[in-house]
Amino acid sequence: MIARLVSQGMNIDLNIDPGAARLLLPVRGEVHGAATPALALENPDHYPRLEQCVTPDDRVVISGDSPSLSLPGSIRAVVDRLKMGMVSVGNITLVLGAGSETFIEDLITGQDLGITIVRHDPANTSDSCYLATLRNGKRVYLNRALLESDYQVFIGSPCRGARGKLVGPEVPILAGLMMPQPSGEPYSSDELREVGTLLGNPYFLVTVDSGGDGTEGRSWWAGGWESAGGARRAHRSVWRARAQSESEVVVVGTGLSGGSTFEEWCQIVKKASRLVAEQGRIILFTGEARPDISSWIPLFERAGEPGDLLEKIRGIPKEKRCLGWWARAADKAQIHVLSGLGEEEVAMMFAQPIDPDQIRSTVAAAESVAFIGDFSKAIIGVPIA
To answer: Can you list the domains of the chain with their CATH numbers?
Structure first.
């Protein structure tokens, strides 16, 4: 069977023997949703059509996560429906989150939709205003244009939140529209879910990658919270699985929305190390990602070996202790990395560089394989000890 590894800037297809697959994500399951954004908005899930939810004078804000906004037809389909509700394009604003990819703005501007496009600046206090105080006592400040609008439309996908829990599309979207906490710590997915409920009842256009190729491998849902729930259930059917045993080779793609920092790499190999057999191989496929590892290299150099680093982990600054996950994985298995880093940099990290052809040959020769095409979406159960 053909399985696709996904990362920022690069995808590769692998031929995996079904008999060798101990874990295979995405699951090639059937997902029941609309084939395009326009069809989803034409037939919303237990909800009125978008044009029935707005009035001509409404100020409407559209926001979404970068991968979903970049999909063909996602923005235009929403704008066309709003026009059916007699909403003027002058009253439609697309608010991009602080972390949105820069090409998104160019892509949407090129469609000449006539809407206003703004990017949230979390450092600019005039871009945010007070929303509410959460149950834990934290005061929340959210994008001003979003809060001052009469109606909101969110375009996004379900994703993994804290502790691998599946959350709705509002979580990553709102994360890019918040003023940072005074401590500098990001809001948790649970806190962002609470913020979402405080907004009332935004309209959702939700997409789920069903494991196919391009737009043909996607399904769409439109409507309210119930629709987003239906998309989450569909996401689970494709992206959740439990490995029943350890595998000789674990192959992980970081996905379009993850893998840009070394901290994220550590989190990924932590999970992979629980799936791999002793003296096995972990292949980390990050595409063109080139995280800044300058502050990590001295820690590797002083340790010398993974076991030495583990012995010294308590002496490492707390914010760097995720390095212990990397060291524990390197102590158990060989780590191979495809990335934008140079060979010498990878070698300093107790790892070895690898190229697409070597990945294919390694997978073909393995007696058992755990394959995670996009770690940012996957919900993985590890083998029971």
So the answer is: 2-20+246-381 (3.90.226.30), 37-238 (3.40.50.11440)
